[in-house]
Design brief:
Length: about 450
C-alpha cells in the first residue's frame, strides 16, 4: 500500500483527483485543502508520496517542498498544477521535486500519468531507503580530471555514505576542485598519491579505506563521468539482493551502447575480452576491463586489496581471485560516454599478456589443485604438451622434406593428429571450466 498526501486548494479539483486515484486499491489517499493542514498531517504521519498543486494561498508547491526539506522530510513530492510554465518546471525539479506534471484537457490521460509517477516516486524512495540500510561507498580514481571531476562528484546520490577520491598525482587543478567540494560535502575523503602509480593502485587504496570503515558495498566509478548516477542502482541491486558479489559494467551488450566505440577499439576489446575469460574463468562476462564496478564487503575482504595488480589489468586480477574463491560476478549494461577525457587514470597494456598468463596459472593451481581438485588442469596440461610437440614435429617434418628429401606424409599426418588431440584437450578443459562457473553459488 502506498500512502499519498494530496494538497490542492480548489475543492472540486481535489475531490476529482482523490476519486480517480482511489480507484487504485494500492493507493491510500489523504486529501487537504491547504499547506497548513498538510504540514499538520506530515507531523503526525509518514507518507510515501506527496502530490501538491503549485499556486496556493499560503505557500506555493515549491516553497512547500523547500520547507519540508528544511525540516528534514525527504518524502518525494510531485508538482501537479495547471499554472506555471517551463521556468516553474525547471525550478521545481532543481529544488528536488520528484516529478512535474502540467494539468491538461484530458483528465483520464493526466490522472493515469500522475498515478504512474506516484508508483515510480514511491519505488525510488523505497529503493533509496534500502540503500541507506547498507553502508555504501564510492571509490573514485582520478588523474587530470579537472573538466569532469566536479560534475561527477555532484551527481553522486545522497544514499552514498562515503566518497573516496584517489588522486593519482594529477598535474592539473583536480586537487583544488576536489578540496573545494570536500568542504561542502563531508562524505568526500580526498587521498593523493605522491607519484603516479596506476589505476589499479588507486582503486586498491580506495578499497583499503572502505574496509577500514566497514563499508558493505564499494562502488568504483571514474572521474571522467563515465557512469550516470541513474545507473548506480543497476550495480547495487544484485549485491543488495544477494544475487551477486561483484557487478561490472558492460558497454558491449546492447548494440545502441556499442555505437560509442570505434571499430578498432571494439575489436581490441573483443580480443582482450576472450583472453580475460580464459584467465579469469568468468566465461559469461563481457567487457571485463570496464572500470565501473561494485563489490560486496565479504568478497573484498577475501581478495586482499594489497595484492591487486597496480596498473592496467587490475580488473582481470580481481576477477581471477573472485572466481578462484567462488564468488559470483555478473554484467550490468552500461552506455558508452564519449567525453573525450582519459578514463580515471593513465593506463598502459605493458605487461598485460604476462599478467594474463600468471593469473591463469595461479587460478589453475589455487582453484583446481589446492581448494578443490578437478581434472581439467591435466586436460590443459596435456593439450599444451601435444600442441608444443606438434609444432616441433612440424618443423622436423619440413626439415626432413627440404634438407634430406624424405617423405612428408607420415610426419605431417602425425603433426596434424597431435595438433588435433591437443586442441581437443584444451577445448574440453574450457568446457569443464565453463561448467564450473555455472556451478558457482552465492549463499
Amino acid at each position: 500500500m502506498i500512502s499519498v498526501l494530496l494538497v490542492e486548494d480548489e475543492p472540486e479539483v481535489l475531490e476529482l483527483t482523490r476519486l480517480f486515484l482511489e480507484r487504485d486499491t494500492e493507493l491510500a489517499i489523504d486529501a487537504c485543502l491547504s499547506v497548513k493542514e498538510a504540514l499538520r498531517k506530515l507531523n503526525n504521519k509518514i507518507y510515501n508520496v506527496i502530490v501538491s498543486d503549485y499556486v496556493m494561498p499560503e505557500l506555493n508547491g515549491i516553497q512547500l517542498l523547500k520547507t519540508l526539506k528544511f525540516q528534514g522530510i525527504d518524502t518525494p513530492l510531485i508538482i501537479f498544477t495547471g499554472k506555471g510554465g517551463e521556468d516553474v518546471a525547471i525550478e521545481a525539479l532543481n529544488s528536488g521535486a520528484a516529478f512535474y506534471l502540467q494539468k491538461g484537457d484530458n483528465p483520464r490521460f493526466q490522472f493515469a500519468k500522475l498515478r504512474r509517477m506516484i508508483y515510480e516516486a514511491a519505488l525510488k524512495q523505497r529503493t533509496e531507503e534500502i540503500y541507506r540500510e547498507n553502508n555504501i561507498c564510492v571509490v573514485l580514481p582520478a588523474y587530470n580530471s579537472e573538466k569532469t571531476i566536479e560534475i561527477t562528484l555532484v551527481s553522486i546520490p545522497d544514499y552514498i555514505f562515503r566518497i573516496y577520491v584517489i588522486d593519482d598525482a594529477s598535474t592539473d587543478r583536480t586537487p583544488e576542485y576536489v578540496r573545494n567540494l570536500a568542504e561542502k560535502d563531508t562524505r568526500i575523503v580526498y587521498l593523493r598519491h605522491d607519484t603516479h602509480k596506476g589505476i589499479g593502485a588507486s582503486i586498491a587504496a580506495g578499497y583499503r579505506e572502505a574496509l577500514k570503515e566497514s563499508m558493505d558495498i564499494t562502488v568504483v566509478i571514474t572521474g571522467d563521468h563515465q557512469v550516470s548516477a541513474a545507473l548506480l542502482p543497476a550495480f547495487l541491486d544484485p549485491i543488495v539482493k544477494r544475487k551477486a558479489d561483484y557487478t561490472v559494467g558492460n558497454r558491449l551488450q546492447a548494440p545502441e551502447y556499442r555505437k560509442g566505440l570505434s571499430p578498432g577499439r571494439f575489436f581490441g576489446n573483443t580480443v582482450m575480452n576472450l583472453f580475460t575469460k580464459i584467465a579469469s574463468g568468468y566465461w559469461q562476462l563481457s567487457d571485463p576491463q570496464n572500470e565501473c564496478t561494485a563489490i560486496s564487503r565479504r568478497a573484498l575482504e577475501r581478495i586482499d586489496p594489497a595484492r591487486i595488480y597496480p596498473r592496467y589489468g587490475y580488473s582481470t586480477d580481481i576477477l581471477t581471485k573472485l572466481n578462484a574463491y567462488g564468488f559470483r560476478a555478473i554484467n550490468v549494461s552500461q552506455p558508452v560516454r564519449t567525453s573525450g577525457e582519459v578514463s580515471g587514470t593513465r593506463s598502459t597494456t605493458h605487461g598485460f599478456p604476462r599478467l594474463l598468463l600468471n593469473d591463469f596459472l595461479w587460478r589453475m593451481k589455487e582453484k583446481y589443485l589446492i581448494l578443490n581438485f578437478h581434472p581439467l588442469v591435466f586436460f590443459y596440461l596435456f593439450g599444451i604438451i601435444c600442441i608444443v610437440m606438434s609444432f616441433f614435429l612440424g618443423i622436423f617434418a619440413l626439415y626432413g622434406k627440404i634438407v634430406d628429401m624424405e617423405p612428408l606424409f607420415v610426419r605431417a599426418t602425425l603433426t596434424l593428429i597431435l595438433l588435433f588431440i591437443g586442441s581437443m584437450f584444451i577445448l574440453l578443459a574450457m568446457l569443464f571450466d565453463m561448467e564450473q562457473e555455472r556451478n558457482i553459488g552465492m549463499y
